[in-house]
Amino acid sequence: MDVPREVRIEQALTRAVHTKLPRLTLRAGAHLLAMHVSGFVLLLSFLLPPAWAVDAYAVPDVVPALVIGAVLFGLTVCHVAVQLPAALLGTLRHRGAPARAYGTALAAAGVLVALMVWMLGGTWGDWLDLMVRLALSLACYVALALLR
Predict the structure, then answer these.
(1) Better pLDDT: 6 or 100
(2) For 13-22, 38-47, 70-79, 102-111, which range has the lowest pLDDT when averaged over its residues?
């Protein structure tokens, strides 16, 4: 017997309402909190603009909103492509040892930042600038994720 489509949809929705959805574990919640707080710390570190942004402000033909947009885009790329993978690698690999987790996260971030700076044609100064900013935010991530 063929059940009409509307009845199947209603049955599926009814089953979905009555089934329990998986709960967020405490460990996953700690990582989500750490991701957001460390991203905010990274954002606060960009209140002191990078050297290339200061140089771009000096050029009279450049629109300041474009420089601010470039800094925010660079911050987002750095957070998603460098900070989060490095922090997850460190904290998931060394759950019981915060110092080793931080060291692993810093080493992974150093390699990822070096690749990113090299692809964008940056200098060692740009690498060092990003690593100093990331060191503080990674410390926040490791402290929050491995908090007991």
Answers:
(1) 100
(2) 13-22
The conformation of residue 118, written as its DSSP 8-state character, comes to H
For residue 4, pLDDT over 90 is answered with no
Q: Which pLDDT band, with edges at 50, 70 and 90, does 1 fall under? A: low
Cα–Cα distance measured from residue 71 to residue 49, given in angstroms and rounded to the nearest whole number: 8
Q: How far apart are CA 136 and CA 56, in angstroms?
A: 26
Average pLDDT for the chain: 88
CB 93 within 8 A of CB 101: yes
Q: Which long-range contacts (CB under 8 A, 24 or more apart) does 34-40 make?
A: 34/87, 34/91, 34/140, 34/141, 34/142, 34/143, 34/144, 34/145, 35/84, 35/87, 35/141, 37/140, 37/141, 37/144, 38/83, 38/87, 38/137, 38/138, 38/140, 38/141, 38/144, 39/79, 39/83, 39/137
SS3 of 4, please? coil
User: 42 with 130: CB under 8 angstroms?
Assistant: no
Which has the closest alpha carbon to 32: 94, 87, 99?
87
